[in-house]
Design goal:
The protein is mainly alpha-helical. Helix content is about 90%, strand content about 0%. Helix 2 packs antiparallel against helix 3. The model has no long low-confidence stretch (mean pLDDT about 75).
Length: about 120
Amino acid sequence: MPSSSLAVPTDPLPINTWNYVVDVRTLARVSESFETRVRLTKIEGEAIFTELTIVQQQIDEVLKSIEGMKAALGGGKEWLEIAEGAFGELTRMQLEVEEKVGRMGRVMDGMDELGMELDF
């Protein structure tokens, strides 16, 4: 009977075990991909937030400058010209903020998409 104990199994890995091994490897790659995408999205979000903070500081500086000029000039034609220039600058900054907010929205949409993919 010793010859029966030396028999080689015809199916060393059952199909379910093989599928499990493949799934673990696939899950590891998918997990790495998601982690990378999440990190990149977070970095992009932080960069946009920093840009928005800088623009907000610039807007605050322009508003303070306008207040200072108004006090120094006391109104009149010079004040009107300065106010028009400042208005143009604030309009430019507003457009810049709107563009960055749009980018931030796309980043948030990407985060939502990643969240849905992770739920599956």
